[in-house]
Automatic annotation (TrEMBL):
SUPFAM superfamilies noted in UniProt: ATP synthase (F1-ATPase), gamma subunit
Organism lineage: Bacteria, Pseudomonadati, Pseudomonadota, Alphaproteobacteria, Rhodobacterales
InterPro entries reported in the protein's UniProt record: ATP_synth_F1_ATPase_gsu, ATP_synth_F1_gsu
Name of the molecule in the record: F0F1 ATP synthase subunit gamma
Cell location: Membrane
Record Pfam families: ATP-synt
Membrane topology, as annotated: Peripheral membrane protein
Keywords on record: ATP synthesis, CF(1), Hydrogen ion transport, Ion transport, Membrane, Transport
Domain of life: Bacteria
GO molecular function per UniProt: proton-transporting ATP synthase activity, rotational mechanism
Function: Produces ATP from ADP in the presence of a proton gradient across the membrane. The gamma chain is believed to be important in regulating ATPase activity and the flow of protons through the CF(0) complex.
Family named by the database record: Belongs to the ATPase gamma chain family.
Length: 277
C-alpha cells in the first residue's frame, strides 16, 4: 500500500485536474450560451430574406430544385479536443462525402487533422472562429470561396454538414444548399413590390444572401455544438474525478490508520524491550 504522503500528493494532483476540468466546462457552457443568443439574430435575418424571396418569386422565377449531383460538401468540424467523440463523428461524415465524390470545404483544425491522417486534403479550409462574434466574418470568407467555385461549376450541388447543439447524440446534420429549392418559399399573394432592377437579378441576389445566412447559421450551430459536446464530456470527467478523489481519500484513511497501527506496535515493542532490559 502507498504511503499516506504519496496518496496525499496524488489527491492534490486530482484536485488540480478537477479545477481545470471545471474551468473548461464553464468556458464551454458560456460559449454555447453566447452562440444561442447570436442564433436568434441570424434566424431573424434568415426569415427576413425568406420573406423577400417569397415576394420576389411572385414576379416569376425558377422553381424547385434539380436532382442532387456530386459537388461540394461543407463540413463544420471540430476545432479542439476534449469533446468526446464529436470530432471523430464529423471527420467520418467528411470522409463519407469524399467517398461520394464530393470536394470538401472544411472548418476546424481537429477535423482537418483527422482527415490528414487519412491522406485527405480539402479543397478549402479554415480554422473555426474562437468566439461567436467572429462567426459572421468567417461565413463571409466561406461564402466568397463557395461562390467562386460555383462560378466555375454552376451545376455543382452543395451540401453542408454540421451538428445540432440541442441533440449532440443525433450525429451530423445534413442540409442542401444547391441546387436551390425555391419551392420552400411560396410566392407572396400580396401585390408585387415596385422594382428598379430585373426580377431575375433580384432573385439571384436574394438567393446568395439566403445561402450566406444558412452558412452563418451552420457555422454558429457547429460552434455551439462543439462547445455543448465539450461541456458534456467535461461533465463526465468531473464525475470521474470526484469518484477518483473519493477513492483516494478512503485509501489515505486506510493507509494512515495502518501507519499509525504500525507505529503503535513498534513503540509497544520498543517499550517492552526496554522493560526487559
Amino acid at each position: 500500500m502507498s504511503r499516506p504522503e504519496e496518496i496525499r500528493d496524488r489527491l492534490a494532483n486530482v484536485h488540480q485536474i478537477g479545477s481545470i476540468i471545471s474551468t473548461l466546462r464553464a468556458i464551454a457552457a458560456a460559449h454555447q450560451a453566447e452562440a444561442k443568443a447570436h442564433l436568434q439574430a441570424i434566424r431573424a435575418q434568415e426569415a427576413a430574406v425568406a420573406e423577400a424571396l417569397s415576394a420576389a418569386l411572385a414576379l416569376g422565377g425558377p422553381t424547385g430544385a434539380g436532382a442532387p449531383a456530386p459537388g461540394i460538401t461543407i463540413v463544420i468540424g471540430a476545432a479542439q479536443g476534449f469533446s468526446g467523440t464529436y470530432g471523430e463523428r464529423m471527420a467520418e461524415a467528411a470522409q463519407a462525402a469524399v467517398q461520394a465524390g464530393d470536394r470538401l470545404m472544411v472548418v476546424g483544425s481537429r477535423t482537418l487533422g483527422a482527415l490528414a491522417d487519412q491522406g485527405l486534403a480539402p479543397d478549402w479550409s479554415a480554422e473555426m472562429a474562437p468566439h461567436a462574434p467572429e462567426v459572421p466574418p468567417l461565413a463571409i470568407r466561406m461564402a466568397d470561396a463557395l461562390f467562386e467555385r460555383l462560378a466555375e461549376a454552376p451545376e455543382a450541388s452543395v451540401r453542408m454538414i454540421h451538428a445540432d447543439p440541442d441533440d449532440i447524440g443525433a450525429g451530423p446534420q445534413h442540409r442542401s444548399l444547391f441546387p436551390f429549392d425555391t419551392s420552400r418559399f411560396p410566392p407572396d399573394a400580396r401585390p408585387a413590390p415596385m422594382l428598379n432592377l430585373p426580377a431575375q437579378s433580384l432573385i439571384a441576389s436574394l438567393i446568395e444572401e439566403y445561402v450566406f445566412t444558412e452558412i452563418c447559421e451552420g457555422l454558429m450551430l457547429g460552434f455551439a455544438a462543439e462547445n455543448a459536446a465539450r461541456a458534456e464530456a467535461m461533465g463526465r470527467a468531473q464525475t470521474a474525478v470526484k469518484r477518483i478523489a473519493g477513492d483516494l481519500r478512503q485509501e489515505f484513511q486506510r493507509s494512515r490508520q495502518d501507519q499509525m497501527t504500525t507505529e503503535i506496535v513498534e513503540l509497544a515493542t520498543a517499550a517492552e524491550a526496554v522493560g526487559e532490559a
